[in-house]
Recover the amino acids of this structure.
């Protein structure tokens, strides 16, 4: 009961941030624009962490390529945002985005069709990562690729996608990706109002995703997942279809990551192939590990706390951040196998 | 007039060198056309190096008549009104022969090569005898090639079909795209000889295709040997011990930086500096093996049986190593210079060119593979290692210190990664993220070849390398990588345990 109250309090506190931003600068409760935008980003990261935790913490699928699903969701919404720029680009072409004019395209490639509708783009942010996860997951789980092998394959997947998206002739802006967005759903980006709307949208998605994952893990399906994580062969011998269970949760997780990416891109205003880099995916893994895998709250807590450390550290010693991150990777499995949550629970239990 | 003479360069007065055969010929250049042509021919036959600038000046109308039978070479275009020695076509023909003969007989191979190129550019049947003579004298293979090409070209330019046919046959035996281009031109010019020319072109194409295939195969072997070096260490740590070491790429990088440091240390000792690379081999092995042993004893052994945690931990170690190197050596590339005995290219028969350092790396990779196999099969350490892998408890009861064997095995695998770094420093940029580019590929090799099988690693590395290079011309570097990845995923569907799956008891963990 108290746990729920604490969670509710946290959500309310987060929800207050954009409101406090409206207070005059002089007010002691005023929150800067920087805090609003960075908290918006962190909420998206938390959704990604939740998605990863669902796959890793509950079903034992350690994906080192969840950043790819995140980035694909981001690219889907980025394509919509590019279409909305319309003739306001540098080259002023009525249809084609700037980079296509620059690269000598004469017409929109077929796979860009439909992205002028928000609903379609948003659906794609779910469908494309979901489909990719379905194909990769089917191939991998069917041949019982588990554990580290799966991790390596997913890492190779995001690496290959990064290389592919760096190419100019992919039709996704190559090296530079998409940026210089103007508006979304009729609201100009980069205004406090839009920022608040995106912030609340992310928060609502986070809460909904949390509730969904919490409900899912409490069902029989969720329990089977946990059993698969702990003893896959035994569950298979008991007659459960392990492949289907894993596939379902992997696809769901990928779609959730896609939504996180779709919410992230309008807030940061840029998406480029760097988002696919294996380092990003593995950073997400450390959020979950640090917060406490196998607990949904832990994943969210991890995303917020690691990113808080990152922001704080990179402001005065950017060189040290990678060393600290590396040390987190080393310290968590050795000293904090259950993450921050495990530490808190143990402290509370005594 | 005086100023003009100052601009000009007085070559020589006949009186001063009257006893010299070369100087005796000079007045002939100022005579009538017939006498000029004869003089030019004799100058060419004389083979005196002083004749070359003189005849060039004559051809370019820069040779002036001097007082009483002397000649003057003007360095630039002579001013109008100067007393230029004029020549007719007959003299020009003689001049070309003499020039070609002089240049082709020059002691400087570069000069001879340039002459052959010049003759190749303006092909004329008149050059045939000069070229034949030069080809008979020439010993440099590269120049011989150009001369043969020029001779073929000159024969094509001949008027009579018999001579043309000889040229076509000769060109058909070469392997150069230029010969092909010459033949194509000739095919348009003389349709009568089309069939002969077509067979010649076909035989060139065949040889060209063969050469391309050989070069692709070599590139594939080269990439494969690099992959094998990087994957061999993984085959030991991951394949034999089951430790997934994501810091393996960073060990490769440390090996490359060790090579750099050894090079810098040897820089000031002249007799040692060409041998810094062989010195770096044991140094890199020791450095990475020690770091590996420390990592195994200090961190990894607490996580045996928890592969995912090991993966995260080793990834963290890799991150720290990378950042520490970046902070110490800087983020920019460091240059490791190939020793002189590794530079340059080898030309194999059939004009297949391979860079020497890549050839050395292939040899080095095979040497490391054999050494690894020998260490595992023939040494006491290898025996203990195999015993611990097969049955840890019984090995322990037989008195093997399993902990020490674990540390040594991990150190051994890490040391091989360091050796890979020495090799990579020769062909890639030595930068802090050197290892990241190879780590995923090496894991693919290990998974493809079959975990725990060194032979599988060998076959896996070379087949992936060659497959990659075969695809590259069609699909580009990036798509080839993606295609290889997809192919491996599909391959794993058919054979989940890799090419060389372990059979029997060893197969189940």
């Amino acid at each position: 009961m108290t746990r729920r109250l604490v969670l509710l309090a946290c959500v309310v506190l987060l929800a207050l941030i954009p409101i406090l931003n409206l207070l005059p600068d002089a007010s002691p409760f005023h929150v800067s624009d920087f805090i609003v935008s960075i908290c918006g980003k962190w909420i998206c990261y938390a959704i990604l962490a939740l998605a990863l935790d669902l796959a890793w913490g509950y079903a034992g699928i350690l994906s080192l390529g969840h950043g790819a699903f995140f980035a694909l969701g981001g690219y889907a919404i980025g394509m919509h945002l590019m279409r909305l720029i319309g003739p306001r680009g540098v080259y002023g072409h009525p249809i084609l985005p700037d980079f296509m004019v620059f690269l000598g395209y004469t017409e929109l490639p077929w796979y860009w069709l439909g992205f002028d509708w928000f609903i379609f783009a948003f659906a794609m942010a779910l469908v494309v990562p979901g489909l990719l996860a379905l194909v990769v997951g089917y191939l991998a789980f069917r041949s019982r690729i588990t554990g580290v092998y799966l991790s390596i394959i997913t890492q190779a997947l995001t690496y290959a996608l990064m290389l592919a998206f760096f190419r100019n002739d992919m039709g996704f802006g190559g090296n530079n990706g998409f940026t210089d967005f103007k508006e979304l759903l009729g609201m100009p980006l980069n205004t406090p109002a839009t920022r608040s709307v995106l912030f609340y949208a992310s928060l609502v998605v986070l809460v909904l995703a949390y509730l969904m994952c919490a409900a899912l893990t409490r069902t029989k399906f969720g329990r089977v997942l946990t059993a698969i994580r702990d003893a896959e062969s035994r569950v298979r011998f008991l007659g459960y279809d392990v492949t289907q269970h894993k596939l379902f949760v992997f696809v769901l997780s990928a779609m959730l990551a896609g939504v996180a990416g779709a919410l992230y891109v309008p807030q940061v205003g840029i998406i480029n192939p760097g988002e696919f880099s294996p380092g990003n995916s593995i950073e997400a893994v450390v959020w979950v590990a640090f917060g406490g895998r196998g607990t949904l709250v832990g994943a969210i807590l991890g995303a917020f706390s690691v990113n808080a450390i990152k922001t704080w550290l990179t402001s005065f010693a950017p060189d040290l951040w990678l060393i600290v991150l590396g040390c987190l990777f080393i310290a968590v499995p050795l000293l904090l196998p259950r993450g921050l949550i495990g530490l808190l629970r143990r402290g509370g239990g005594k | 007039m005086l100023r003009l003479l100052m601009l000009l360069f007085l070559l020589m007065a006949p009186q001063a060198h009257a006893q010299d055969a070369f100087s005796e010929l000079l007045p002939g250049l100022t005579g009538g056309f017939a006498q000029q042509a004869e003089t030019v021919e004799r100058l060419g036959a004389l083979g005196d190096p002083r004749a070359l600038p003189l005849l060039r000046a004559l051809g370019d109308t820069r040779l002036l008549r001097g007082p009483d039978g002397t000649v003057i070479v003007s360095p630039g275009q002579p001013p109008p009104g100067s007393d230029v020695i004029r020549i007719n076509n007959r003299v020009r023909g003689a001049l070309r022969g003499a020039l070609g003969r002089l240049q082709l007989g020059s002691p400087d191979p570069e000069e001879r090569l340039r002459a052959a190129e010049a003759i190749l550019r303006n092909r004329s049947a008149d050059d045939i005898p000069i070229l034949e003579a030069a080809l008979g004298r020439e010993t440099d293979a590269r120049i011989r090639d150009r001369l043969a090409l020029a001779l073929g070209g000159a024969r094509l330019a001949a008027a009579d079909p018999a001579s043309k046919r000889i040229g076509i046959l000769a060109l058909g035996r070469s392997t150069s795209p230029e010969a092909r281009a010459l033949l194509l031109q000739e095919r348009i010019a003389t349709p009568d000889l089309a069939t002969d020319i077509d067979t010649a072109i076909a035989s060139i194409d065949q040889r060209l295709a063969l050469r391309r295939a050989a070069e692709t195969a070599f590139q594939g072997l080269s990439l494969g040997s690099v992959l094998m070096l990087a994957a061999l260490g993984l085959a030991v740590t991951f394949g034999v011990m089951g430790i997934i070491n994501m810091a393996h790429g960073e060990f490769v990088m440390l090996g490359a930086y060790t090579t750099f440091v050894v090079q810098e240390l040897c820089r000031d000792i002249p007799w040692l500096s060409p041998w810094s690379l062989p010195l770096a081999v044991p140094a890199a092995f020791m450095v990475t093996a020690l770091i590996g042993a420390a990592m195994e004893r200090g961190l990894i052994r607490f996580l045996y049986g928890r592969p995912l945690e090991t993966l995260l931990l080793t990834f963290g170690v890799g991150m720290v190593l990378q950042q520490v190197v970046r902070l110490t050596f800087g983020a920019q590339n460091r240059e490791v210079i190939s020793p002189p005995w590794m530079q340059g290219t080898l030309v194999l028969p059939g004009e297949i060119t391979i860079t020497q350092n890549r050839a050395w790396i292939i040899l080095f990779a095979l040497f490391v593979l054999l050494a690894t196999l020998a260490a595992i099969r023939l040494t006491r350490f290898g025996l203990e290692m195999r015993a611990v892998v097969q049955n840890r408890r019984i090995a322990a009861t037989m008195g093997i210190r399993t902990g020490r064997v674990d540390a040594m095995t991990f150190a051994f695998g890490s040391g091989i990664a360091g050796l890979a770094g020495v090799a990579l420093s020769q062909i890639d940029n030595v930068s802090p993220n050197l290892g990241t580019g190879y780590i995923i590929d090496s894991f693919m090799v290990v998974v493809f070849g079959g975990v725990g099988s060194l032979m599988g690693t060998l076959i896996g590395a070379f087949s992936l390398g060659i497959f990659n290079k075969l695809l590259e011309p069609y699909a580009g570097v990036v798509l080839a990588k993606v295609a290889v990845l997809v192919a491996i995923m599909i391959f794993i569907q058919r054979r989940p345990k890799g090419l060389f799956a372990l059979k029997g008891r060893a197969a189940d963990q």
Notes: Chain A has a mean pLDDT of 84. The longest strand of chain A covers residues 178-179. Residues 39-274 of chain A form one domain.
